[in-house]
Amino acid sequence: MSSNDDLRDLVRRIYPARVEGDLESLMSFLDDDCLFRVVGNQHLAPLTDPVVGAAALRVTMQYLIDNWDMRGIDFVSIHVDGDVALIHRMGRMRFGATEYDTEIMDKMTFENGKLKECVEFIDTLQAAALLDVVKLPTRN
Q: Which of 1, 2, 12, 13 is most buried, most CB within 10 Å of its CB?
């Protein structure tokens, strides 16, 4: 188990790699059998399908880098308990030409200094609207 400060520092290095689109750096933080998933039901698949392993994660992370711009997202808080970090982030995000305000919670589990599991909680209604799975009503 790493110290709380070590995990906090590791978390603070992972997100900039994602934001800057540095896929190689991002992959260096992940365990070979890392699991990544966005919490949501099957109607948002493949976004909510669990992704496991380096090859599949590389494809998924490249898709996220290419399509979901997170440069406007900042840390609100990072809480560490043992090998688990809970990360609260918020700000402006962009998908395609659409910018919107959002909040994200991540639960990251580490093993031997590598990310073993990342479970991401997002605004699934917003994601569904952006992916044309549902239509949001307009305000009058």
A: 2
